[in-house]
Amino acid sequence: MTANPAWDDRGLVPVITQDVSTGEVLMLAWANADALEQSMATGQATYWSRSRQEIWVKGATSGNTQKLRRIKLDCDADALLYQVEQTGAACHTGARSCFDAGGVLAQWGGAQDDEEKP
Amino acid sequence: MTANPAWDDRGLVPVITQDVSTGEVLMLAWANADALEQSMATGQATYWSRSRQEIWVKGATSGNTQKLRRIKLDCDADALLYQVEQTGAACHTGARSCFDAGGVLAQWGGAQDDEEKP
Lengths: 118, 118
Fold this sequence. Notes:
Two copies of one chain form a homodimer.
Chain A: E1 13-19, E2 25-31, H1 33-42, E3 46-49, E4 54-57, E5 66-73, E6 80-86, E7 104-107
Parallel strand pairs in A: 1-6
Antiparallel strand pairs in A: 1-2, 3-4, 5-6
């Protein structure tokens, strides 16, 4: 690995996962060094599950895998962006995106003001 | 506020900020309850600066403001998505997105395989 993330005091960084073809933000999860290394080695989006305290290959049980197309680091190296080809739903609720499952807290303007991107 | 984020042990949640018209992921930052409340009241993307330990109205000094269009919560309520109209650069480096400033850690396939979305 050429650039190293600035791992937090738990050895983690947040990971934003985005659909590479639509731009939709699918989920936010976490990676430790092992999860990032495994992602880079396999091309399959891999995370650290904070609840289960274990490496989590997305879709390993559900089949809703994420084929990596690109991993980017942000300017201060404390966040990752996984751009993926998503199979099926990203969210455990069955929603395409986890942000379709939690609700809209606030909205300004109507949907007609959107260019109807994600 | 109808739904409440599940604040972490520091009273924060990560916030993904996305350009509402292009879908581009611009940055990852953090919010506490005050930052979220102020965002909802003003329609201007507001964060908690962990380095400065203060409320941070995006663009207050740079002029590169973010007009909020939508705030979404994820399925387990521990991440926020701000969809914004970005003025100028989102990144302090001058890059449009913070994820253009940190480097590509890995890539699979060529750019020609992209549908050239964000």
